[in-house]
């Protein structure tokens, strides 16, 4: 979903606003770079018989094994920006732009008790829940002065400032061995969790001058 709005405030100024929102839900099969991936076994497996070791050292799942647990991925993303242009004098103009990008990401795996491939202790069940919030803010302001030095030579000088701010905050919860028929964190017999935060702020002046 997107929305754009442009307004002419006066003969010397105008403003533009843009917004966007995206929501998605995906259910993805186990297909990582591992021995349980569907493509991995499709290329190297025999499709029948018990679990055995392939000559190329890839474990194969027999055709009767349950499919590994599926990964569920959800995304909520909002983007917004505003741009203002100002021309107070014939030789002077200014532009300011500010924007934001906010993403909420939720991913999880569920392997119910007694289901899944006969591999390691996966049939004991597990579940994990990963939630990340990603924020990006940007701002840019520029002023430009233009002069006609001679009938054949013109000069233009721009001065501005840029600002970037990125923030990531997330947590990961892993719940080994959920009780039969349960998939919430309260049913786990063992729990592991951690969180992470990363933040970067950058600002710098800009300048440019050229003649033609």
Relevant terms:
212 residues, single chain, elongated, seven-stranded antiparallel sheet
Structural class call reads: mainly beta
- Described by the principal axes of the CA atoms, the overall outline is elongated
Question: How is the largest sheet built, in terms of strand order?
Answer: 1-2-5-6-7-8-9
How large is the share of residues in beta strands?
A: over 45%
Major pleated sheet: 7 strands, antiparallel
Residue stretches low in confidence (pLDDT < 50, at least 5 long) are 51-66
Mean pLDDT: 79
Q: Helices and strands, in N-to-C order?
A: EEHEEEEEEE
DSSP helix fraction: under 10%
- Total strand segments: 9
Quote the distance from N terminus to C terminus: 43 Å
Put simply, the count of helices is 1
